[in-house]
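Encode chain A's predicted structure.
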Amino acid sequence: MKKGGLLLALLIILVVCASLYALTLSMNRQDAAEEESAPVLTVVKSIDIENITGFTLTNTKGTHIFERQQNGWVYNNDSHFPMNTDFVNTTLEALSSISAIEVLDREGEDLSAYGLVEPQMTLSITESVTDGKQITRFLIGNYNSFNGYYYMMVEGNEDIFIIDNKLVDLCGKEEKDLIQLDTLPENFAADKITAITVSYMETERTFTDESEGFTELVQAAGALSLAQYEKYYFDKKEFITPIEIVISYSDTVSSNAEGSSSVTSAVDYEYKITASSHAEDGKVLFTVEDSEILYRMDKEKFISLETLLANWDTSSK
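Encoded structure for chain A:
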């Protein structure tokens, strides 16, 4: 390499190194600035998760009571309620350490100025202690639109705390946020459906790709949704002249036997739906498999019951 070329290469290397060094310094300064701007939190209450035996969330729409019992957590003393266990676990983690952004000096101000005389939300935590149980109640007041924070105090304590939205979001939950709904099988899809069997009024009909209307039924079955529930505890006996729908579908499964190559085979599945034979307020009510939850769907989107039943032949098998 000529001397001029070598000098040019060295110059390029120096420029690259200088740029990387400047970038590193800039990132370090940015990280340091972010650390300095982040508020130093004040721990208001710390609790060992294992000692939390219950908690109550109250907002303007209702009260939600959670209790730890022998078989797990129970909501509103109702063992039938299908509670979302992920919600409970996340909540316990949040309740184990409650922090504040700032502690205010009240200087004799009336609590009503902070919305703490009639708080919009409350949180009560019950924990087991040496001599029995202890209940700590947190009051959440007004929202300060200037800084985007809420006011909070612990009942029996004079301090007023400024908190972020985490605790507020938790206390603002509704029943629909707490329930664990069913889910459709992961491998369920319209293009895998091979047959749909409908039972009604002691008669049964099976639709396949050779049957009139099968394509429309498959499209409707593929749009099946478990997003909206009517109520969480339901006995199928409540349906008068129910209609039962069994969706048969097939999927390929790969398996590896030791010492051999992968083998792909077709596996047949069934998914059962029990539905009301008439729509209520434009909704079809139904349950799936062995679920105790009653769901609803717009009759236009649900499997075409009206079309099926309008010309139902009770003599057909």
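Helices lie at 3-37, 85-95, 165-171, 175-178, 214-222, 305-310.
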